[in-house]
Design goal:
14 helices; about 30% helix; about 475 residues; Catalase HpII,  Chain A, domain 1; alpha+beta
């Protein structure tokens, strides 16, 4: 045994003291090193997605999509790459229950030959807000109150009722899909619209879909609540056990594709995170298969320090005008620098498995050779790395006057939630309205009435179903408006 500096340890049982009963001496380097390390072994937990699990695996290309992208990963059917996933709940802290009613994070880091590609998604195809200015407000409404440090359904429904764009995600959240049966039996979605660019610099917009090959399974509310107390790590245990037993979970990886011309005239804003693309308009195209086949050896190194960011794409991929995505391109790396330090991408789990040539130097916890004596500026005449014009981004057209545009004006936030409600079986609809009513009991009446108006505008049966369980009536004018 040694100290962290390599000094051999002669006694790891007794502190250095002045006599058997004397005080501890300041020169006890081992005691202070152990205490200091202990005090710092918890890095700041993620503000959201704090409770997570994951595993290693592989991705295999099964279909040719070279007409859409020049990314080398997709250059040939049969190509493979290593990956690591992280699944998580959103609102709870690190010790919270895996079975809570909450969206699930679904992130994948693909180690490609051209650098890391991160897919940072959820198990839902939409989100609660479409403008990033409201993201922090939304999360605050789901977290703990500043006064009591308690979570509150009142503030949740207060925010949702005043943000009608949240109705689509709220409907999913309180449906059976709000409590998936572990991580193996849920889908994953990029949610955001990204883009692919082919060798001719032609762009298409895409949404990524990871379809579970184990089949969709959800927990009923009573069972989810029971497991929250009996086995709060249920989803993590299920994933780990399956892989230990060589029952490797798989997902079919697919894309929806939309051309730039189609995006310009599509019936909804294709870059609105609260909306989906109709599958009859834009069907799924299979891309490959993701398999998880290796558990972690050290959770902290491989999962807690894993840092996923939508900014991590490879040549042949691109972004979109999705406002939420644009903000996440900045906020995710910034959160990682705060939580893990400026050199977080040098950590083994985050480091690309291809050459990295950057002029970034120094900073907290730089633990490689820090570039040695090579120049730390560019351009230089010392043989340093240089730019390559082949990797310039394909230009996109941006037009419009600078301003703060009302994202709710002229936006139909009721049709798609109504369509989803009507797709549910009667039994599923009953469970949905029951889950909502149980969660809304005891909140102020004015909040309930406003939220009921949103349900009713989506579908009269939706609003009436919740209202009846709460012993309230839906206003007649709301029913007329819904018709």
């Amino acid at each position: 045994m040694t100290s962290t500096s390599g000094r051999p340890v002669g006694d790891n049982q007794n502190s250095l003291t002045a006599g058997a009963r004397g005080p501890v001496l300041m020169e006890d380097y081992l005691l202070f090193e152990k205490m200091a390390a202990f005090n710092r072994e918890r890095i700041p937990e993620r503000v959201v997605h704090a409770k997570g699990s994951g595993a290693h695996g592989t991705f295999t290309v099964t279909q040719d999509i070279t007409k859409y992208t020049s990314a080398k990963l997709f250059s040939k059917v049969g190509n493979t790459c290593d990956l690591i996933t992280r699944f998580s709940t959103v609102a709870g802290e690190k010790g919270s229950a895996d079975t809570a009613r909450d969206p699930r994070g679904f992130s994948v880091k693909f180690y490609t030959e051209e650098g890391n590609w991160d897919m940072t998604g959820n198990n839902t195809p939409v989100f609660f807000v479409r403008d990033p200015l409201k993201f922090g407000d939304f999360i605050h409404s789901q977290k703990r109150l500043p006064g009591t440090n308690l979570r509150s359904p009142v503030v949740m429904w207060d925010f949702w009722s005043l943000s009608p764009e949240s109705l689509h995600q709220v409907t999913i959240l309180f449906s059976d899909r709000g409590t998936p049966d572990g991580f193996r039996h849920m889908n994953g979605y990029s949610s955001h619209t990204f883009s692919l660019v082919n060798a001719n610099h032609e762009r298409v917009y895409v949404k990524w879909h990871f379809k579970t090959m184990q089949g969709i399974k959800n927990l009923m509310t009573a069972k989810a609540d029971e497991l929250a107390g009996a086995d709060p790590d249920y989803a993590a245990r299920d994933l780990t056990t399956a892989i230990d037993h060589n029952e490797f979970p798989k997902w079919s990886v697919n894309i929806q594709v939309m051309t730039e011309a189609e995006a310009a005239t599509y019936k909804v804003n294709p870059f609105d995170l609260t909306k989906v693309w109709n599958h009859s308009d834009h069907p799924l195209h299979e891309v490959g298969v993701m398999e998880l086949n290796r558990n972690t050896k050290n959770y902290f190194n491989e999962i807690e320090q894993a840092a996923y960011s939508p900014v991590n794409i490879v040549p042949g991929m691109g972004f979109s005008p999705d406002k939420m995505l644009q903000a996440r391109l900045v906020s995710y790396p910034d959160a990682h620098r705060y939580r893990l330090g400026t050199n977080y991408e040098f950590l083994p789990v985050n480091r690309p498995k291809c050459p990295v040539n950057t002029y970034n130097r120094d900073g907290f916890m730089r633990f490689d050779d820090n570039g040695g004596d090579a120049p730390n500026y560019e351009p230089n005449s010392m043989g340093g790395a240089t730019e390559d014009k082949r990797y310039l981004e394909t230009p996109s057209t941006v037009a419009g006057d600078s301003g703060r545009y009302n994202h709710r004006e002229g936006n139909d936030d009721y049709k798609q939630p109504g369509d989803l409600f009507r797709l549910l079986t009667p039994d599923h609809q009953k469970r949905l309205v029951t889950n909502i009513a149980n969660h809304m009991r005891g909140i102020p009446e004015h909040i309930i009435k406003l939220q009921l108006s949103h349900f009713t505008k989506a579908d009269p049966a939706y609003g009436r179903g919740v209202a009846e369980l709460l012993g309230m009536a839906v206003a007649e004018e709301e029913l007329v408006g819904a018709r």
